[in-house]
Structures are given as structure tokens and as C-alpha cells.
């Protein structure tokens, strides 16, 4: 075979190999090839250009006590000619403040966005402007306007500002529907990270419904779009240029972006913004109950097939349902037609409901589903009541006191009559009733559940108990029914209720 023949054979072999590789790639499973949404642009330049004008930088200043001393931060030593010299000179200039009154000016930077160009309404995070003496809004065209505070909400970390737009043409953006966002959808963040205004970053929705324990209504959108310090209060846009989130928090060991940022969903934020604009404060619905999660053990004790809903641990005296419509021990499954999958769903759904609205609530009471109608109060009016500041947050009493009987030992607990002697010994409030726990055996089932002497058993399996004999009888009855767990409602010394389950086998 000539050299030319060998070369042609080699070429045929290479081409065949390439063809085989191509066929193999085509035949590979579809998940190997990423797919992109039809509305995802090849470039986000046009989208960003139309939105940059609505995103603002927010600078605040406040006078605080001087920080000279051990906790003071010294000015860093920079190399001669460093480009950061002017920045640090401005930052540390006059840090000692007014020596006469011991005050000093502290400045901070954040982000925000305009939602009403005619009225000059700007939305940001509460923590961006908290305790500020002076707030300025800086626009992308170089204009700086003084801002006044319309209202804030610490629970969702939302604040609304107002500037005077007279003589200036502002650009506004609108809220979109965050409930339509799916994991994997493209999003864009625009803000003021580290003072670098007009910074655009792009990523996807990494997760939804995140609870980061920052407040009672946590329901964050998680994104990998780069969010850093200074992005707080800035918008997270969908591909249509609508605000579907307010960037508010990051997880970062270093202080910079590691691709885990969190945004308040527009579904939650828009309602808060509307209330702040209308009233200058929030007006949330209030049910007037204390709740706890429904665990597998509790679900089994209540005869529920699955662990879901919110368990009512107590009813606030003087609250909206202090008329018996909802009782301690009820499990709330639906509120105003919305499913309550877990405990944390209920506060958010209730808060989003208008004050005074009559709603249907689906509950499980003693193993039976039923619907009750309740009229909501106002959370802000009930917070003092719920916290006990007026001394009236005792839960409804369960059962009447019975004649004195001997103590009993059950499930690792020693229980006795709740009388004047035991009330005084354990400092139990006069309006708490039931059977007092006088001792808990170490390493017992009760000890594992954190039960302490001085707590009072008010119910077992949703039946009131008033004597040690009642406790023994209820436990015996549950065992005869083949139950593996006993559901106890316990009252603290001050009357606050909680549910625990104890294994009986």
C-alpha cells in the first residue's frame, strides 16, 4: 500500500471516528445538554439598559457615640500612592466626631428602586436606613435627592421612602409575580455593591421558600446572582424586567458573594409596601393562637395519617378566637382556602389576610375534620396581649380541680395534686390547673422530652386531667387502644402551653 493510500485510509478512519463521536453525543440522555428558556436573551444588555435608571443608591448617615478606645477601628496603613487612599481618608476623616458631645457621623450605603415615578416612591430594606438621621437617594443620572421615611416593617425588613421628583424625570419599575418563578429561571440583580453603583449581575433562582430564621415570615428566594454588601434593598428582576424580589441577605464566610443570596419575594413585599404607603405602618391579620409543629409522633397520637398543619398549643385570652371557635389541641390544615403544610405557613398566610376579614379555617379536632369561621384581629394591636405585657395572656383553663389524692408514678414522672402547697413550692400561677409533675426520673421517656418538675399536665390525648388518678386512667386507656404515644399538653409555671409526645412502649 502506497503512502498516499495509507494517508487516505487514515483520513477515512478519523472521519469515521468523528462521526461516531457525534452520533454518541446525539444519542446521549437529554439531561447532558443544558436547555435554555425561549425568553432567555443571548445578552441582557437591552434589558439592563431599560432598568438601570430605576435602581438607586441609598446613602445614610447617623450620629452615634464616639468609638475611640479598644473597640475603635484604626485607619489601615496603605502603600504610598494607593488608589484607595482618598477613600479611606474620607471614611476616617473626623471619626472622633464632635468632641463636645462625644458623637460622630457614621455613613452606610445600600440600594433601592423606584416604584412610582410621579410620587417619588422608593423601596429598600429596613436595615439599610434603620436609625438614620439623614437619607439621600442617588440616581444613575447623577441627581441626588433628600428622602423622607414613609414607613418601615422590621418583620419583613422592608422600608418605603419618598423623594420630591419635581423637576426630575424618574424611571419606575413594577412588581411581578414571584409565585410564578421556578427553580432554574433566569434573574438579574442590580445594585450598589461596595459602593459600585449600577452593578448588574445575572444568575438563576437556586431555590424557593427558604427559611433562614431572620423573621416570622421567612419565605426567601435563593439566587446565585452575585449579591454583595451594598446590594441590600436592590431589586431582583425576572426576564420581563419585573421586580420579583428585594435582595436582602447573603451567606458568606468571607463577606463577599459565594453564590448564595436571598431575596424577599414580591408576593410578600408588595403587600407590605402597599400598607406602608397607605397607612405608614403594617396592618396584619391576627388569629390569637400559639402554635407548634405537628411531628410524626403528634400526628400518630392525634390519629392523623400524615404530619402536616399547625398544632394550636394555646389560645390568647382576649384574642380573636377566645370564644372557643379554635381550641388548644386543634390542628389547622387550611386557612381561607390555603393549605397549611407546616407550622411556618400559618403566620404568613394569616398576616397577609385583611384585619376584620371572616375566614373559613379547616381544623382537625379530636380526630375529626371540621370547618370553623373566625374573624381576624389586628396583629399590631394584639402583640402586647400575646406577649403578656398586660398580664392577660393566660390560656383557657382545662378541667376543674378535684379532691386531694395520692401521687402516682407514670412514664418516668411523679405526678401529684396541684394544691396550695405545690403551687407555692413550684411558683405556679393561680390560674393554672391540672396535675403537677413533682419529679422526673433521669434517662426516662419524660426526661428525653425535656419535661421538668413544676410543669403541669392539663390534658392527655386531648382529654382534661385534674388528678393523678386521671393521668393513670388516661394512659391506661391509650395503651388498651394500642397507642404507642401519649400526647400531653403541658402548662408552664406561668400558664404557657406546649404539646409533647411520650413513647409508652
UniProtKB/TrEMBL annotation:
SUPFAM superfamilies, sorted: PDZ domain-like, Trypsin-like serine proteases
Region spans: Disordered: 384-403
SMART domains to which the protein is assigned, alphabetical: PDZ
UniProt-annotated location(s): Periplasm
PANTHER family: PEPTIDASE S12, PROTEASE DO-LIKE 8, CHLOROPLASTIC
Ligand binding (substrate): 127, 157, 230-232
Secretion signal span: 1-37
Enzyme's top EC category: hydrolase
Protein's name according to its UniProt entry: Probable periplasmic serine endoprotease DegP-like
Any one Gene Ontology molecular-function term assigned to this protein's record: serine-type endopeptidase activity
Domain PDZ: from-to ranges: 276-367, 393-505
Family under the similarity heading: Belongs to the peptidase S1C family.
